[in-house]
Amino acid sequence: MATTKSGTGLGLYLVHKLATAGNLQVRYQPNKPHGATFILTLPRPST
Prior knowledge:
This protein has 47 residues and is α+β, with helices and mostly antiparallel strands. The chain has one helix spanning 11-21, and strands at residues 25-30, 36-41. The N and C termini lie far apart (47 Å). Helices cover 23% and strands 26% of the residues.
């Protein structure tokens, strides 16, 4: 596991923007001891 963080921090921002635009649901679950799981739920198509 890396001890330093790298990146721009745009990942979750972009996921949120795309989810909002596409009517998706984003859920978060801690993944102990390290990290997290993010779940995107798509709406069912209307019939």
